[in-house]
Every structure is written in structure tokens, then in C-alpha cells.
Amino acid sequence: MTRALTLGTLVGGLVALVWSTISWGMLGWHEKTMLGFQNDSEVSAVIASHAPQDGTYLLPYMPSTQGMTPEQKKSAQATAAAKFQQGPIVVAAVRRGGFPSIGRAMVIQALNMFVAAFLLTWLYMQTRGLSYARSVVFFAVVGVAASVIIDLPNWNWWGFSGAYTAASLADAALTWLLAGLAIAKVAKPATN
User: Cα dihedral sign for 139, 142, 144, 150?
Assistant: First the structure.
């Protein structure tokens, strides 16, 4: 089992990393689902002057109601609800210092793909009686399930576009279908 888990992790992680590099770096389909701000220099200056630290920001922001009287809390919640109804709503990951290093990001992405391949190989090895084709479908479905867990709530709550969400769902399915082709060859579930 250790050998199969190791092989599945290495082969699956490598395939997922190669596909991820092609998908994000060469195909451009993710970028086509994103929009740019008009006069991004002005928007950048406003963000830099109003976001004091790196982090994930929400606009409109609902400050803590801790310590408020029930009336103050109700008023603050009503004000926040009105702002959410009116818009705009923005969820932004802010890095004040720009992108630190493409090399570092690639190493972290590789680690992410190998950890995911390890987890999916382990999960696959808990199954019994799947044919090779069904094994590959298993990986694709797990990839879609992971994307559904993350991407559909972002679409629902934060307004991520339908095109961006669809591309993310398709990419997750393709990533783990392709990795599944390899993992299902080298990591066979136990037969007992």
C-alpha cells in the first residue's frame, strides 16, 4: 500500500502540476473570465491608501457588533444589509508588496498538487471493485466535488462570474481526470 500511495502521489501530482501549468500559463481561459478596472492605476492607488496590510478585504465591511446594545447591533446590521443591497460588493485579496516570487509560487503550487494527489490516491485506495474507466471517472468527480465546495459558494455569495466559475469547475474536472488516468494505473486499491 505504501508503494502504491507513493507512486500515485508522485505521478498524479506531476500530471496535475503539468496540466495546471498548461491551463493557467498557456491556455489563458481563466484570464478571459476576469475583468479589469477602468484606470487601474487610480484603483491601485485607492486600494494602497485604504488597505493598511496584506489580507482579504470585503466591501462593504460589517464591523464587529461586540459590545453594542441590541438597538445598536440592529442598526449596524440594517446599515450593512442596505449597503449589501445597494452594492458594489468586492472581495479582494490584497498584496501590498506585489507578487513576491514566481519561483516560490511554483514550488507552493507543486506542493499543493502533490498533497492533493496524495489525499486523492489515499481516498481511491479505500474503494473496491472499480474498473480502470470508473476509477478515472472517480478522480474527475472528486475534482468537480472539490470545486463545487469552493467555487459555487464564491459564485453565490460574492458574485464570482458564471464564466469564471464554469472555467474553475471544468479545470478541476480536467486536472483530476488527467491525474486519475495516471494514478489509476499505478495505485491499485487492495482487493481484500
Answer: negative
